[in-house]
Amino acid sequence: MQYLLPVLFIISSWLFIPLTVNANQTEPTPGRLPVQPDLRHEPVQPLLPAKNLNPGKLTLGKNLFHEQRLGRDNDMSCASCHLLESNGANHRHHTLGRNGVELDVNTPTVFNSSLNHQQFWDGRAANLHEQINFVVANEKEFASNWPAIIKKLEQDATYTLAFNKLYADGITADNIRDAIVTFERSLITINSRFDRYLLGESDAINQDEKHGYQLFKSYGCVACHQGSNVGGNLFMKFGVFGDYFSTKRKLTNADFGRFNVTGNAADRHVFRVPSLRLVALTAPYFHDGSVQTLEQAVKVMAKHQLGRSISDEDVSSIVAFLKTLAGEYRGQPLPAIQRQKQPGNKP
What we know:
Cytochrome Bc1 Complex, Chain D, domain 2, mainly alpha, two-stranded antiparallel ribbon
């Protein structure tokens, strides 16, 4: 039942919304002033910066995000997998964790992650605080525990001073998590070209990109990808109209998705819908990192989630729209990682 409404939205979009849109529909009629569309109630809305973040906790959280002593062997931090200088994720289909061991799924970007309704592809963490607990305990990641981490940080006078200044009870697991999450809440990518368009800058995106947005809506993509995060706020089965997993050579435990959390057969192959905010910068795609290009990802989603075949022309326009969603961090555009052949980096 929880997955029924998005499916009904997709079907209704086929029935009531035309699948071809005039790319020049916003052009003014000769002799008349152009009519600006009312964008206040669009299914996609602008990202806004986080408010009321304690500056001291933000700075402390940033330091902890890069602190390798959180890992058992003092050589792994949150930033080991989430590269803030680029897309907040990395370029591998599965990130290499502790001792070079591959993680089970593709690493999502940490940017805008505070807007997700739950964390991880399978939603096993209710929030970012819980998400940190899983990373700390995971043998492929930090492989540590809170008493060990607290002991290390207490030996650092700088951390002791910072925690005592910000928290009445000093260095605790709750306070470490709180500081890191405060920093993560600041990682909002604002001022994208599409957001500027939504806020009234009509020429922030071109006609092909506007056409791509109309197609994004008319095909039904917005059934799962909407809101300011363009996704991240519900669970959906991967393969609503087609069995994506039938073409895989070998299923892994991670392919069962939310079923691993709930044990409910209806949750088999169900995943948290990802945000599309940085989708143009975060290849490869899907929980298994199996698709390398955004164009192919759109085709796979059309086939398996919408039950449709999309023309190359429409795919190109939708991709053009998706590229307008990537915003800025600290006033600078986020660059895509240049993927390079490396040992353990599967194509």
